[in-house]
Amino acid sequence: MATKKSLRILILLAVVLVIAAVVIVSQMSRTKSEIVIGVVGARTGDNAALGEKQANGAKLAVEEINANGGVRGTELVLALEDSQGLPAQAVACLDKLIYRENVLAVIGDCQSSPTLAMLPVIAKAEIPLLAHGTSLSITQQNNPWVFRTRANDVVKFSSLVGFLVGEMNYSKIAVFHDSADYGIGGADAIIGGLAERSMDVVANESWTPGDKDFSSQLINIRNTKPDVVIFIGPMVDMGLAMKQARQIGIEAQFAGGAGIESETTVGAAAGAAEGLIFAAGFISSNPDSKVQSFVSSFEEHFGYKPDDFAATGYDSIYLLAAAIEEAGTDPADIRDALANLEYQGVEGTFDFDSVGEGLHTMAYGKVANGVPTYFDPNNQ
Question: Domains in the chain: how many in total?
């Protein structure tokens, strides 16, 4: 009996060793024949549209690059993971990408809280992260592996304040934001931008992500009689908040950052987003020839126009491809190449500073007939 039991154990161990060997050989073969880039973003949940657009932008870039011979003669491959917009899930996705998929670099998450949760893992693994969350704190962690490919909240919202005050001549600005990292960071940037002009917000109200009733905060805002209300938060929440704001009689100009102009937000607003002004790194109606080439190709592939999130997925892959083409596949060399790279993307000119901030300017848009359009106040 003991002999039979020992034999069964030996057979089981042999099977386990064979499976392990197959996995190892498969991974070794994969790394030699492909360059694998990880993509972390929400594919399910309230912000699934962000992750879908980010991933589609990345897919289009990979298709174009591979059609032109790949990078150093090697094809790029994407490994997609669904963070659900949750910090803990984003970390689990990142662990899988690094230790099972053997990725060379990672792009994402679109949201700030999941991105912040991933930073310690990136620092430990020592691979580049092209971050898409916009909270200023993402690049304030002394992490040399982080490069942001969207304008941060300070750039975005201080630029928006400058536009609203300097170009549109508004003076009474209220801010309504969620209580997550993105909302808090955006509100701080708006307050800071106004302080530089010796101004202050007339109201600063917040909500908990997922709330559906904003009446008490909106009444407080209404009582200050603002010229502008700037909304910052998840897409559905912002849409519902704008809808309820109009329902209780707030007639102010509405404004916000990238994402507020999305179909999800505009749809949830049910007409209340008409005339909305927004700041974004990318606007699909920008007449720039490189932008229009991207828009045409993206729409042909996916059946809808790209937005800021699609553009950052697209630019991130091209940035990594340029760095790998120059430096090879050692992660430290890729990091150094990114730090010294200047690249003209569809979002603008990337020139990473000492903390990894890549974009330093914004474009402005307006929702007209339910569609986000490039906005020049001098040609209205």
Answer: 2
Whether residue 174 is found in the same domain as residue 246: yes
**Helix (H, G, I), strand (E, B), or coil: what is residue 116?**
helix
- In the prediction, which pLDDT does 259 show? 82
The 3-state DSSP class for residue 350 equals strand
Exposed, middle or buried, 211 (CB in 10 Å: 0-12/13-18/19+)?
A: middle
Residues 114 and 220 in one domain: no
Contact 43/82 with Cβ under 8 angstroms?
Answer: yes
For the chain, the residue count is 380
Distance CA 239, CA 226 (A): 19
Max Cα separation, the chain?
A: 91
Residues 199 and 116 in one domain: no
Q: Write down the H helix ranges in the chain.
A: 2-33, 48-67, 87-99, 112-125, 153-162, 181-195, 215-223, 235-247, 263-269, 289-302, 308-327, 331-339
108: which strand partners? 40
Domain with 94, as residue range(s), is 35-151+287-361
Q: Mean pLDDT, 10 residues at a time, over the chain (380 residues)?
A: 52 46 41 87 91 97 98 98 97 97 96 95 98 92 97 91 95 96 90 96 95 97 98 95 98 93 93 96 92 98 94 98 97 98 96 95 93 78
User: Among 125, 52, 135, 54, which residue's Cα sits nearest to residue 312?
Assistant: 54
- The pTM assigned to this predicted structure is 0.80
Integer Cα distance of 313 and 311 in angstroms: 5
Query: Looking at this protein, which amino acid is placed at residue 282?
Result: F
Query: Within this chain, do residues 200 and 170 fall inside the same structural domain, yes or no?
Result: yes
- Among all chains, which residue has been given the structure tokens 């032109």? 68
Residue 8 located in a structural domain: no
| Collapsed DSSP state (helix, strand, coil) of residue 64 | helix
Q: Residue 221 falls within a domain, yes or no?
A: yes
DSSP 130-185: EE----GGGG-S--TTEEE-S--HHHHHHHHHHIIIIIT----EEEEEESSHHHHH
| Domain assignment of residue 15, yes or no | no
371 occurs within a structural domain: no
